[in-house]
Amino acid sequence: MDKLNLICVDDQREVLSAVLQDLQPLSQWLNIEDCESAYEVLDLMDELDAEGEMIALVISDHVMPGKTGVELLTDISKDSRFSRTRKVLLTGQATHTDTINAINSAGIDRYFEKPWQASQLVECVRNLVTKYIFDMGLDYSQYHEHLDQSVVFDHLR
């Protein structure tokens, strides 16, 4: 089974480690990458794309030096190579305006405030990656046992 890529970015290593720990149950079918800056994410995405890898989801903090999470997710949404990549903003410091901008310009699929619930984050990732698989027209059968079954059911109806 080919693993799909999930990229998590946060400039605070302890927060990033917590996200990675919460997502660990998904690592048997997702390749989970971590980055500490928006620029590192963009470089990694270029590398993965050049290798023919698919990036199903990016989970980003908002407040980071250099480029915010909203700016990063907006850049990703404007890149035709990643038009179907799902996006999640995970932050404790976004303003109401930041959140609206994330939805409108970055096309985020989900927003979580810190502290998040691990079970909700895992279910969100499972749901969004399932939608990505169907959006990309991939053979879902190799991932079937890991997918959000409600999305699978809706797609097969």
Report how far the terminal alpha carbons are from each other: 25 Å
Tell me the number of strands.
Answer: 5
Classify the beta-strand content into a percent band.
Answer: 15-25%
| Element-by-element helix/strand order | EHEHEHEHEHH
Helix content: 40-55%
What strand line-up does the widest sheet have?
Answer: 2-1-3-4-5
- Rg on CA atoms, Å: 15 Å
Q: So, the CATH homologous superfamily?
A: Response regulator
Number of domains: 1
Which structural category fits the helices and strands?
alpha/beta
Number of helices: 6
- The CATH C-level class name: Alpha Beta
Summarize the main sheet. 5 strands, parallel
The CATH topology turns out to be: Rossmann fold
* Overall pLDDT score: 93
Specify the CATH architecture.
Answer: 3-Layer(aba) Sandwich
Protein name: Chemotaxis protein CheY
GO biological process, one term: phosphorelay signal transduction system
Keywords: Phosphoprotein
InterPro entries: Bact_response_regulator (IPR050595), CheY-like_superfamily (IPR011006), Sig_transdc_resp-reg_receiver (IPR001789)
